[in-house]
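Cross-check.
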Amino acid sequence: MNIPTISNQSSPRLHWAAEQFLDFCRTKNLSTNALVFYRDRLKRFSKFCEVEPNINAPTSVTTADIRRFISSLADSGLSTKTVNHYIQALKAFFSFLVEEEAIEKNPAARVKPQKLVKRIIGTFSDEQISAMLSACDMHAFRGVRVLRGTDRNGFL
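Predicted model, tokenized:
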């Protein structure tokens, strides 16, 4: 499995920590998709950290830094679900660093996922329901079954 690594342009210490995390993920036998998921999100976070003057290592990352990063993602037009994926990846990354005693506390621990807007699916109109029911062939068993909503065993 040949997964490209995080850019060498990242802060060396942050880059090293990200590589250690990805190695840890590989030892857990995570799928290629999961590895790419973490790699891509950590790469974007590393690029964000490159332009921040006070972030040069995982120990210097604060909750406020992570919140600024999340805000920048939301402002860039990413969906709430995608932004929440970044939060999930950062929480896993910093939890790993805490477990490895590379940092004392997880700066992402208090970052909450963004609230997802629930999409309400419209219901069928009376005319649409009538059209569906009239499409059933009442002279065939299948048509009767579909109209009743079950077969002989009570299943559709």
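Residues 32-51 form the longest helix (20 residues). The helical segments are 12-27, 32-51, 63-75, 80-99, 126-134, 141-148. Passed to J.P. for a second look.
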